[in-house]
Amino acid sequence: MTNGADRRPVHVTADVVSAKRIGAFTHLTLRASGISERFRPGTFVALSHGADRSLLARRALWIHRVRTASAYGPCLDVVVDPVGTTTRWLAGLAVGASLELTGPLGRPFALPQEPVPCLLVGEGVDAAALFPLAERLRERGCPVHLLLGAEREDRLLSALEARRTVRAVTVMTADGSVGLRGSVADRVAESVRSSSAAVVYAAGSHATLRAAASAAVEQGAWSQVLVTPSMPCGTGLCHGCAVPVIAEHGAARTVRGCTEGPVFRGDRVRWDAMEVR
């Protein structure tokens, strides 16, 4: 177990030891000694540069799995959605390629003190951050239920893996290609009730995060949401990832998503002021 000082982010050169295309996503396994040992669910890594080395902005990547010991040493897995220049470059990397990474960055999910029922709500590639969280919750004896969704089957993340990790999984796709037809946001309230969740964790679109936070309040549960604004630097220096929140004393504030977040209490986010993505 690392101590508090060892939680500080580090900058490392990470090597690609595995690259697999699964559905619409590419799963990269990276040898990243220093980051893997400091990781906590909800934190992320920032890629210093991609295909265009002239760009100063970093690229935030959610950590899907961590192995502190493997044949390659400490490794972490990230899931890449190849929709832009940098992510397409990442998805095309071969084994042996190197990346400049900084991490782990951000505030992690808080874990319950008691083994209470938990509901995890994940949508698309953002659901990657919930898988290591599910493992930690299971280690603490928490009954874990997962509501997992996407637009279509090829964008549904690791549904089979999830069934081996949690107590129950509900799968949804907008087009009905697998699981139930419909949106995750429309199903959250029912899932909170049926799971008797004391804590709701969510990662996904604005609509899904807002629905999870609202359903938790209605059921008297506590919620934590992974808010994902654009994070150009990942370290809080550029102030380019504004998240509107309600402070402890009730006043409206704007904080940085990469340092004060990316995990926030769902009832503290000012959803009407959030930029919708």
Explain the overall architecture:
The protein has 277 residues and is of the alpha/beta class. It folds into 2 domains: 102 residues, Translation factors (Elongation Factor Tu (Ef-tu), domain 3, Beta Barrel); 156 residues, 3-Layer(aba) Sandwich (Rossmann fold), CATH 3.40.50. It contains 6 helices and 15 strands. Strands 10-9-8-7-11-12-15 form a 7-stranded mixed β-sheet, with helices on both faces.
Summarize the structure.
The chain has 277 residues and is α/β, with parallel strands linked by helices. It has helices spanning 35-38, 85-91, 130-139, 159-165, 184-195, 206-218, and strands at residues 10-22, 25-31, 44-47, 59-67, 75-80, 98-105, 118-123, 144-150, 168-173, 180-181, 199-203, 222-226, 242-246, 252-256, 263-265.
What descriptive keywords fit this protein?
277 residues, alpha/beta, Elongation Factor Tu (Ef-tu), domain 3, Rossmann fold, 2 domains, 6 helices, 15 strands, 19% helix, 33% strand, disordered N terminus
